[in-house]
Amino acid sequence: MWLFHEAKYQFIAKRRVAFWASAAFLVLGIAAMGWNAASTGKLLNYGVDFTGGTLVQVRFDVPATDNDLRQALGGAEAPPITRFGADNEFVIRAPVQEGSSIDETAAGIAAQIGGTYGADDFEIVRRELVGPKIGAELQQKAVLAILFSLVLTLIYIAIRFEFRFGVASVVATAHDMLATLGFLAIFRVEISLPTVAAILTILGYSLNDTIVVFDRIRENLNKKGGRRQDPQGLVNRSINETLPRTVLTSGTTLAVLMSLLVLGGVVNRDFATVLILGVLIGTYSSIFIASPALLEIQRRYGTAADAEDKKRQRRTAATV
User: Fold this and answer.
1) Pair 154, 211: CB distance under 8 Å
2) Does a structural domain hold residue 295?
């Protein structure tokens, strides 16, 4: 890693450019959500898991794979398909069709499958209607899970480091979440339960990367004379010192995710895409969002040591 040996890249000096670039992308994402809401009534492209639909369970009497079944139902446009029970049983989650009953939806699926398999090679053993109420509950729980993770992040880092570190990490994590949602809104990526799992994974990855940088900042602060150094130079040096670890971790993670994207098939495409995006955004935010945010908070409100000095000065003045 000769590129990062005694690296002295001026990341903090570019923080204003990064702030404006992030702000522009976030505004674009919010505008895309607004456009989606005006045109479709939904901020994001929610899948069957959230909007409801028809659940159809199919059992085959001949060997069948989910890839063959997906091709029979339209390939990339096929509804979500998962294995269920035995090797030759699958559950198909078809979206709600205007004016179509459960039986009509199931009959349409059977007709599509019959174009690839013989009519006697499979049977539909179950059909159910999944109402939008369940999807609304899933949306609510997903939002609560994300908010809960942000609160725990603030508490954990405030205890391990200082409160200003916790606030900066929440700012970076919220940035990552909004940037990811903006990407999903712009490109109309379908939101399913695996997508929500990917978003939560992104938050954890970003937080871990941020903590590594913050830990080095704290180490440098606690060294002899560390708190008398120029804060901007100290933070920039800390980022450069952790850069090899950041690049290696992100690079190896991206290599695995790219393999999943290329070889995982259409069923893993959205999941892998969101994770790849999240790794890139998380790496970017730990350098250009979290650390500069920490500096800005310190500039405006000072540090815990500054607060203690002010308290001691007030106590001294009161005794005089």
Assistant:
1) no
2) yes
Q: Are both 24 and 89 inside the same structural domain? A: no
The answer on 195 and 289 residing in a single domain is yes
Q: Are 61 and 35 part of one and the same domain?
A: no
Q: DSSP code of 287?
A: I
Q: What is the mean pLDDT of residues 15-30?
A: 94
Query: Of 259, 276, 320, 283, whose CA–CA distance to 206 is shortest?
Result: 283
CA distance 208 to 128: 42
pLDDT in tens, 165-215: 888 988 998 899 899 999 999 998 888 878 888 888 888 888 888 889 999
| Token representation of residue 105 | 């939806």
Of 57, 77, 202, 47, residue with least CA distance to 138: 47
* Burial of 113 (C-beta count, 10 Å sphere; 0-12/13-18/19+): buried
Q: Are 224 and 297 in contact (CB under 8 A)?
A: no
pTM, rounded to two decimals: 0.79
Amino acid at residue number 186: I
